[in-house]
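Format notes (please read before filing issues)

Several people have asked whether sequences and structure tokens are stored in separate files. They are not. Every record keeps both together, in the order shown below: the sequence lines, then the token lines. Line labels are part of the format and must not be stripped during preprocessing.
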Amino acid sequence: MQAYRLGPVIKGFWARCCLCLMVVVCPSVFAQDGPQDESLLKVAFIYNFAKFTRWPASAWNGHVPLSLCTAGEDELVASLQYLGHEMIKGRPVTIKAFGDGDGNPACHVLYIAASEHDDFARLIEQTRDLPVLTISEIRGFADAGGMIQLYRARNRVRFKINPGVADARGLRLSARLLDLAERVDGGVAP
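Then the structure lines:
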């Protein structure tokens, strides 16, 4: 009979619990320290959004990196560069501009900056048939067919998720992530 070691299982469980607690408790701590800390907190949110999303097998051609694309410019776009040295789901993260030079690069995550407020619907439409996790801080983003919208409420960073759009694109969002979010039903039809 083989003996099983519970140490790694318990350690992993506690790490997940601490991560969830950090996402719930830390927003108010970071948000009070200033705009740079808030940007880094939002970067951590985006990291965790990607970490708790499951893409269909067709999204991965071999051992390709997880591609995080950005459209437009804002403070968060600059801070997202910190993720260029990280690993998510065993894949290195690459950061690139959406539509930079070679048309639309293959993206797993697309962050749409506030500067694209007048054009974000077109960007969502460009990813409509693709398994791309779309994220923005633009007001009304999740209601208009985006997947995840970051926003501030009561001095805390919060997020809305449109699970119907994610499902239609073949993305599976973790139940833990959905439990922490404000859910939005509707938006652009699949």
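For reference, the curators noted about this record: Residues 147 and 175 are 15 Å apart (CA to CA). Residues 7-31 form the longest helix (25 residues).
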